[in-house]
Amino acid sequence: MNKLTEGPILRALIKLSIPLILTNILQTAYNLTDTFWVGRLGSEAVAAVSLAFPIVFIIVSLGAGMAIAGSILVAKRYGAKDAGAVAHISTQTFFSVLSISLILALLGYLIAPLLVGMMKVEPAVYDDAVAYLKITFLGLPPLFTYLTFQSLMRSIGNVKLPFYIVLSTVLLNLALDPLFIFGWKDVVPAAGVKGAAIATVGTQILSAVIGLFILFRGKQGIKIRLSDYHPDFSLIKELFKLGFPVSVEQVSRALGIFMMVLLVTHFGTMVLASYGIGSRILSFIIIPAFGLGMATSTLVGQNIGAKQYDRVKKTLQLSLKIAFGTLTFIGLLLFIFAEEVAMFFIPGDTATIKESAIFIKSLSVSFGFLGILIVLMGAFRGAGKTKISMILALFSVWLLRFPLAYYLGYHTGLKQFGIWISYPITNILTAIAGLILLIKHHWFEGVE
Description:
83% of the residues lie in helices and 0% in strands.
């Protein structure tokens, strides 16, 4: 059924990681496309889209855990070459996620005005933000459908197909955004900010249709049948048990980012701009680590299912070495050229460039440890130990980074530098904690 439980491990990691990294880059570009075209409407329009994004991210995080849980179980059964179980779990996962997405779509649509109102935005932003948010919420079912398809394909090692689909929809969204935002003659009316949401949801629907066609056709490793579906409540319970910690992990990270922004805002516009530059660099740098982490998760899951525990151990050792070595090298380059990188984002502003460079250097010294942490969390998820990943995320964000940043930034003379150094301290300590948990529990040695 697959070749991930045999052959060279390095080759398997590379074949999985590269399409996953490229897919993550494309998805980042997907999110930036709306901002790019909406920016032509003015700052209020950009503010409306920017306001909606974190809200949608948190809502999506609540439901994405179930899709990831399904992929964990499928990877194990695929590794065990149990085609019947793969089909059954995939079918139950699909309908469970679809049900959740419908509930979240209806709820989100109804409370969108309340959510935007809680942010206390200016009247010029409020209407556009609510409209954008409502349309985006209506697009949750196709979005979740595609996320499920993508997770299931990744669990069996088929990562190229989702990449090609995302590439096609990103290019399509790039063309549809200006069409619906600005209109075209008398054929397509200009919809402004709503047009960006319509274009995005339209491409999500297309992705979902393609994904469903592939899953129902069953020629790519997984086949689901509508006629065979009957709720398997014991399996659904297991999906919730695995998926809930994943959702908590992702939501906690999203809320943590929001809280860090609140801390930085206290120090003024220049420091906030420096934080924004450093954060953008960080979000781009960790894309390769996340790709390697997802590849590790797939390999770990399949080889545990195949009872190839020695191969699991070798996979993890190799992934950790690659992550630490690669990100340490990138961190060294960024440390050396920190000011030049900052200058690319905000040329001419000497004060912001210098402060951004300090933040970038602070981040870069712990990139290798951050790579270790991301790979470890991917491995824990692949092994079905989602609670450990959740604990590491909560420990990192709420017990270390936020309290440390608050204390050093507000109660010492370090000010914003205290917030900057909270990042490397947190990354190093959390990576060490993850390694201790790994060594202590021996979860990969004969444990299902």
